[in-house]
Structure formats: C-alpha cells, structure tokens
Amino acid sequence: MFVADDPAFIADPYPEFHRLRALDEVHWHEGLGQFIAVSHAAAAAVLRHRSLGRIWTDATPLEQFASFNLLHRNSLLENEPPTHTRLRRSVSAAFARGHVERLRPTVEVLADGLVETLAEKISADGEADLLEHVAQPLPAQVIAELLGVPKQEAPRLVVLSNSIVKMYEYDLPEDLRREAEAAAEAFAGYLRELTEQRASHPGDDLLSHLVAADLTGDEVVATGVLLLMAGHEATVNVIGNGTTALLTHRSEWKRLVADPGLVEPATEELIRYDSPLQLFERTATADVEIAGHRVAEGEKIAALLGAAARDPEVFDDPGTLDIGRSPNPHLGFGGGIHYCLGAPLARIEIAAALGALRQRLPGLRLARQPERRPEFVIRGLRTLPVTTD
Ligand code: HEM
C-alpha cells in the first residue's frame, strides 16, 4: 500500500492506483486511517452518498489553530445541509454558467497578455517559468477581480493560500502546521478588513453581495477566503500539469496547435489525465456500503479522484492522453452536493490559457524537467521552465 508522502509515489501515483484497482474497488488504508475508493464507480458513490458527509473536525490543539478552524468551520465546503445549502445559495448565482460566460472575453484578454509576457521572457532569457508567468497569475487575478480584491493583492494571497492548503496533506511537519495557522490568521484578518470596507462602501463585487446576504460575519470571511483559495489552487495545477502532459506528448500538443476546436475537449482531458486534486474525505453519518465494503458510522472513506480517472471500466486506454476524448465523464470536479461551484469558471480559464499558448507559442517545449511539489493531495509543480523551438 502506498505511503502518502513517499516521493516515488508522488512522482507517479498511477501504477499504484492501477495495482490497487485491479485487486478491489475499495481498500482499508492503515496509514491514512480510512477506506479509500479507487474505482470510478466507488469514488462516485462516495461523493454522492447522502450518509457520507463532509464533517469538519477542528485541527488540534485548538488554541494553536483558532483562525484555521474558524475559516473551515464556517466554510460551505466543510458543511452539510442545512448550513451548506444556505451558504452555497449565497454565492451560487455568481458562478452559474451564464454569469461566468460573460467573463470569457476578459479572461481571454488576461490570458493573452500573460502569455505575451511569457513569450517576451523566453525571447530575452532563452527560457521562462510558465507557472510563474501564466498558470499562477491567471486564476488568482480572475477570482480576485470577481470578489473585488485589489489585483495587486493577488500574489500575496496566493502565498497565504499555498501555506493554508498544506494542512490537507497527511503527516505535515510541525513548522508547516504553524505556518498554515499564521497564514490563516493573516488571510482572515485581511478579509475582515475588506468586508468592513464593503459594508460601509458597497460595490458591485461578489464580496459586497456576500456582506449584504444572510451570513454571519465569520461566514462572510470564510466564504471569501474559500473562494479565493479554491478559485486558484486547482486551476493553477491543471494548467501546469496539463501543459507538461501536452509537451511530453508532442503529437497531442501538435494536434492542439493545429485545431482550435480541440481546446474544449483538451481542457477536460487534462483535468482527467493528471488530477490536480487527488483525494477527498467523507465521514459516515450512518452505516454505509460502498462496493461491497461496510463503512461504519463515524468511519472515514476517501474518493481517490486520480485513481477513478484512470479506471479502464470507464475510459478506453486510460493511461493515454487523448485531447479529443469524448465522452469524458471524469470526476475531477467532484459530484453530488459539493460539486465544484467554480467548474464553469475553471473551464473558461484553462481554455483561455491553452488557447493563448497554442496561438502565440506553437513551438512551445519544456526547457528542462519541471520540478514537482512534494505533496500528494494537491498535485502540482513548483516550476515549469519552458522555451520555444
Ligand atoms: C480545474 C480547477 C478546479 C478543480 C479540479 C476543482 C475541483 C473541485 C472539487 C473536486 C470539489 C468538490 C470537493 C468535495 O466534493 O469534497 C470542488 C468544490 C468547490 N470548488 Fe472547485 N475546482 C476547481 C476550480 C474552482 C474554481 C475556479 C473555483 C472558484 C470559485 C472553485 C470553487 C469551489 C467551491 C466553492 C467548492 C465547494 C463547493 C461545495 O462545497 O458545495 N473551484 N472543486
């Protein structure tokens, strides 16, 4: 059984997922202290089962994690109905497909400008980091703009967010746990300041709408932070992991360059092929059966999205990157009541990045091997040095 912080496993978890899936759809993972669902059917069942909930348990010791716990306890992602329904309703209209579709031209202009900067850097220095110049700033700037957070704050919030989400990994060292709390405190403090400003001077931004909605002060802060974090963490890594996949499968990159009609299916395939979010936990609120395994009330089971994404029962040649793949019923955005609220926006951002890259830099290639981040749950790169032919 895999060890979640083993660098060899993190480098390529897919052979281990394949081995486990061939043995059974659900396994007990002693190290994680929970069941893991590794087939597509079992992972989907975990996400959708109404007796498997996102039940928040505070990080301990409590006095050390006041801000981290406050942000999560009041987050729609960490709650079940009726709180979840009320919180999700307060923001769902802003992320509806029709509403975000209106942002597409703005996102495309932004992506174009960032790719132009990348191209200039490559011309000047011979190579440049695609993460730094495109994958990181694009989603962060878009979500900041939507919430009405000044654009120049986005880079600082990305750093804070990166520290906070380390807490979702397993066996995190003490210094990083302390760093996560300090980041949560700074992030919450910043959002509190901003919501006070919006309360006295409302604008047409999402944060002003949240302040006016039926939410407590802590809920407004937690929802703002959740949106700013969820709004970029995964999207950055789809663009990073995805571009790497394309550039290491040169024929797929060439297909994309030749045919703009492939941008849309490529977006789905990149989310499937190298999932940016690998694991989501649920806790049983009653005894539950998943793929013939009993999960007793109070026990946990995780959906392994990366394993589900390579299930041969659902995807032909699951290990093959095929940017024209259709249908592509991946679970990358989850399922059930917590289904990703930002999916329409994320799709627009990824498509805009791919569109701008294929158009402006058709000769794009890796300058060197990218450096991977040493985490399992949030799967991404630290650097992605690229150049052109
Ligand atoms: C490609 C990028 C993205 C991926 C792969 C992704 C994936 C996911 C997944 C798997 C979940 C469900 C978690 C669970 O069931 O436990 C989720 C929830 C969520 N996502 Fe995303 N996400 C992405 C981008 C975004 C963006 C851009 C936003 C912008 C606001 C966003 C906001 C949210 C929120 C608010 C939730 C919680 C929904 C709820 O609990 O009802 N995500 N996301």
From TrEMBL:
Family stated for the protein in its record: Belongs to the cytochrome P450 family.
InterPro entries: Cyt_P450, Cyt_P450_B, Cyt_P450_CS, Cyt_P450_sf
PROSITE patterns for the chain: CYTOCHROME_P450 (PS00086)
MF (Gene Ontology): heme binding; iron ion binding; monooxygenase activity; oxidoreductase activity, acting on paired donors, with incorporation or reduction of molecular oxygen
Gene3D superfamilies per the UniProt record, alphabetical: Cytochrome P450
CDD domains xrefs: CYP164-like
Chain coiled-coil ranges: none
Protein name in UniProt: Cytochrome P450
Source lineage: Bacteria, Bacillati, Actinomycetota, Actinomycetes, Pseudonocardiales
Keywords: Heme, Iron, Metal-binding, Monooxygenase, Oxidoreductase
